[in-house]
Amino acid sequence: MSVTNPHLKFASQAVAKPYFVFALMLFVGQILFGLIMGLQYVVGDFLFPLIPFNVARMVHTNLLIVWILFGFMGAAYYLIPEEADRELHSPKLAMILFWVFAAAGVLTILGYLFVPYAGLAKMTGNELLPTMGREFLEQPTITKMGIVVVALGFLYNIGMTMLKGRKTTISLVMMTGLIGLAVMFLFSFVNPANLARDKFYWWWVVHLWVEGVWELIMGSMLAFVLIKITGVDREVIEKWLYVIIAMALITGILGTGHHYFWIGAPGVWLWLGSVFSAMEPLPFFAMVLFAFNMVNRRRRQHPNRAAATWALGTTVTAFLGAGVWGFLHTLAPVNYYTHGTQLTAAHGHLAFYGAYAMIVMTLISYAMPRLRGIGEAADERAQTVEIWGFWLMTISMLLITLLLTAAGVVQVWLQRLPADGAAMSFMNTMNQLAVFFWLRLVAGVFFAIGLCCYLSSFRQRGRVAVSEAATA
Amino acid sequence: MSETFTKGMARNIYFGGSVFFILIFLALAYHTEQTLPKRTNEAAMSESVVRGKLVWEQNNCIGCHTLLGEGAYFAPELGNVYERRGGEQSFKPFLHAWMKAQPTGAAGRRQMPQFNLTEQEVDDMAEFLKWTSKIDNFNWPPNKEG
């Protein structure tokens, strides 16, 4: 970083690059373990006992969470200086935290893979403060503490940058989202002995992240990219952003109730959770209107077509995955039959991909050409390859979702709707669903091909950069 | 959006709406806390149940199974396994036999690892699953297959 990069407004924005690169490396790992699990769904003993399903799943979901977090952090390091109109408070701290977080992440994943989980719990002293063994929060307590330290350092760094600089709506919203993310994570240390109470607070991390504060982060990232690629007036964009996040929190906070139907919580949640979560598609629908409106009203033709494709694509896919597929099974009388079936998995896949994987790739698509010193956009051919990756991954994920939905409907039909005695057992139902799982695996392979395509677009950009450097 | 609806108005809806619903949410959380002891029969939550929950967590059971519908969808729901597998008369011996028999090694079938639990740990797990099955959760799941 000794040579100044003319395509960055502030040199310290460059710290975003390793965050993005590492995020994409973890993404590759996530898909690899997704494929392993996809095969284990139909060939039950595949890789057993080397990588049992529970280990593969833990790696798959934890890699997802961590790469999205790396993506959010990279995004903040890129956009906060630009919004604040000054250099990042401490690029050095950002790099130290990068290595701390990366090392902690890699060690934790290696721990999952090479140490039996009970052994890992013992090694890390879980009994002193038991937090492990709960879905998505499987990390050893010490890793969770490390995450808190990294989050504090990170918030300090971008907070100071903001305080000393210009305060825009976009940076305020992003900061609010990131503080919310860190605060809600503290509930991962709350693990009451009563299972119902444990589940009640577990959702304060999981739901209030993905259906709460993460939407603020997503909204601000989207608004930032839309300002850059459309040139539409900031006042207009920021008004939309407030409307979107208002809808997100007004529906999403009480919408938490849709997770409280069947865990022992009182009946008030049945109707409150149903009513408010039924409105949770609204902020996502507003994002679709927002993105398409802004792109239609654009004042300039930005050369980065790929970034525009991602920006529009993330809103539509998030609306489908989080909005439509969420609504499908969110009303209590429906959820009574669908809760914890393959329908839940269908919704989870499209929602996470559409909202959070794609918003991170939107920002990467916009920022990476600049971070790499190429310019506003990669060359036409690289963008075409990137857009191929976009379509392959997105269509494959839609297929995965449709196939899991079909599996879920049949599962409900066979296993949930009939009365005792007539209902099919879980394992027999799974056998009946094999054809859907095989096809899902095929769609997963296409997703992986799409990912390779996407990654190879970076290789071509690199070649362009070299030739430009040579002529310079 | 017309110009009569300003950014300031949008911001006020965001702040006002968020604070309002956060307060309602906290009030509902308080209400939930008050009702949980009775709904979950906390009086019956013995030390064995609490130890059983830790065994459940430290072996990552949630990585394959669901419990009250939450978890992975690879293996059966266990919130009602107590009722499905014998109840008062035979659940405990069933669980001991089951845990010893894993993995089955049947070719191509999903395999449950051997966790090498002690007799005590299996007893605790049985107590935990029994207690869980009695949580008042509006009769979910719909039938005993889970």
Automatic annotation (TrEMBL), chain B:
InterPro entries: Cyt_c-like_dom, Cyt_c-like_dom_sf, Cytochrome_c550/c551-like
Annotated SUPFAM superfamilies: Cytochrome c
Sequence intervals crossing the membrane: 12-30
Keyword Repeat: no
PROSITE patterns listed in its UniProt record: CYTC
Keywords from the UniProt entry: Electron transport, Heme, Iron, Membrane, Metal-binding, Transmembrane, Transmembrane helix, Transport
Ranges for domain Cytochrome c: 47-133
UniProt KW Transferase keyword: no
A family per Pfam: Cytochrom_C
Listed PANTHER family: CYTOCHROME C-553-LIKE (PTHR37823)
Official protein name in the record: C-type cytochrome
Organism: Azotobacter bryophylli
